[in-house]
Amino acid sequence: MGTSCPTTPRLTSPAAQQPCRRATPRTCSARLSRGPNQQGEVISRPCTAATSRRALLCMGGAAGAASMIPPPPALAGPSSSLALREYKMVLRVLAPQTLVPGDWVSDFSAAMEGMGVVALKPMKGYKEVWDELAGTQAKGRKVSTNVDCVGLPDTWLQPAIARGLLQPIPAARRHRWWSLLSADWRRLVTRDDAGLQSPYGEVYACPSSWGTLLMASHGPRLRRKGLQPPRDWVDLLDPALGGRIALDDSPRVLLAAALGTLGLDPGATAADVARCGVRAGDLRARVRRLRAATRVFGKDGAHVRALEGGDVDVAVGWGDALVGTAQRSTGVVLSAPASGTLLWADLWAVPRGAQGG
Fold first, then answer.
1. Helix locations, 262-339, DSSP H
2. Cα–Cα distance between 49 and 33 in angstroms, integer?
3. Rounded alpha-carbon distances, angstroms, from residue 122 to 88, 110, 118, 187, 266
C-alpha cells in the first residue's frame, strides 16, 4: 500500500441528485447549501465563506473533536466529580495549519472549562496530513497512534476509510453536534467499510467547515471591453474571454467547469455522464477547449494573483481564496454559476490507531 496522495475518488458534490438537469439561479450554494442547524431545507446564502467556515469550525470542531477525546480512567465513589476535573485530557490533532484558526486552541480549552487542552500538530497541507497517515501504515505500524483527531477534505474520506486509515467516531449519534446536522451533512459522513455513503454505515467524520467553487471577475475591465461578468459555466466559452481566464490548478475544478459547459451537474460522475447521453469524447473535447482558453492554472493562489494583477479578467476557484480577493479589490465581483457548482467540506476524523478511540 503506497503513501501517495490520493486522487479525487468521485468528482461529485455530496448532494448532487439530478445531474442532467439545471438548477434555478441562486447565490453561492443555494441548491446544495447545508448549515449545521438546518433540517435539510434549501436556502440561499450570501458569499461569506469565511464566516461560514468559522461558525462551522467552532460548532463542529469543538463539539465534534471533544467527542473524540480518549475517556478518563474509570471513576467511582463520591469523589468522582473532583477526580474528573483533575484529569486533564489532551486532544492530539493533526491538520493543515490553514484549517485551525489561531484562537481555536484557546477557545477549545475554554469550552472544556480547563478539563481538556489541544496538542496541535500543524502540517503544510492536506498532502502532508495524508502522508502522515498512509506513511505510518505502509511501514507496518499503527496509524498515527499519537494522534486522536485528523483533518481531511471530504473527497479523501472514502479512500482513507477503504485503506483502513480511519475508525468510526465512537457513539457519534449520541452527541449533540450530530443532532444539529442536517440530513445532507449526515449522509456525507455516514459510510460503509469501503468508504461509500450508506444509510446503514457508521459515522466516520464530523463536518467542520465548507465552501463553494466560485467565479470571480473584474467588472470594470470587462465592461471596458463591452463584456459582462460570466454568470454560468457556458459563459467561459465566449471567444472574447479566450486567454483571459485563470483556473485553480486542480483537475476537479477543470472537470467541473467542463461538465457545467455541457449542461451537466458539475459534480456528475462517469455513470451520470453516460446516463445523460454525453459521450466521453465530447467531454474530453470540452476539457481541451477550456484548457486552450485558460491563460493561468494557478498553484498556491497564482490564479488569484493573476486576476488582481490584471493578467486575466476571470478566475475560477474555491471560495475561501476568492472571497478575500473580492474584499480587497472593489472591482472584483463574485458569482456562483447559475446552473450549479461544487461544494467542498473539511472534516474531523479519528485515525485507526488513535488511543481510546
1. 270-275, 280-293, 302-308, 319-328
2. 12
3. 22, 21, 12, 28, 32
Task: Please give the chain's pLDDT, 357 residues, in tens.
Answer: 444 445 433 333 433 445 565 433 332 322 333 333 333 322 223 333 333 333 333 344 444 554 554 444 443 444 444 444 455 678 889 998 888 877 888 888 888 877 878 888 888 888 889 888 887 555 555 444 578 899 999 989 999 999 999 999 989 999 999 999 999 999 999 999 999 999 999 999 999 888 899 999 999 999 999 999 999 999 999 999 999 999 999 889 999 999 999 999 998 989 999 999 999 999 999 999 999 999 999 888 899 999 999 999 999 999 988 998 899 888 999 999 999 999 889 999 999 888 765
User: DSSP alpha helices (H): ranges in 180-277?
Assistant: 183-189, 219-224, 251-261, 270-275
User: What's the rounded Cα separation, in Å, for the pair 294 and 333?
Assistant: 19
Contact 173, 200 (CB under 8 A): no
Q: Give the C-alpha separation, 275 to 157, whole Å.
A: 26
Cell of 8: 479525487
| 8 Å CB contact between 243 and 257 | no
Q: How far apart are the C-alpha atoms of 244 and 145, rounded to whole Å?
A: 48
Can you list the pairs that 121-127 forms with residues at least 24 positions away whose Cβ atoms lie under 8 Å?
A: 121/92, 121/93, 121/94, 121/95, 121/147, 122/95, 122/96, 122/97, 123/94, 123/95, 123/96, 123/97, 124/96, 124/97, 125/96, 125/98, 126/5, 126/96, 126/151, 126/152, 126/153, 126/156, 127/5
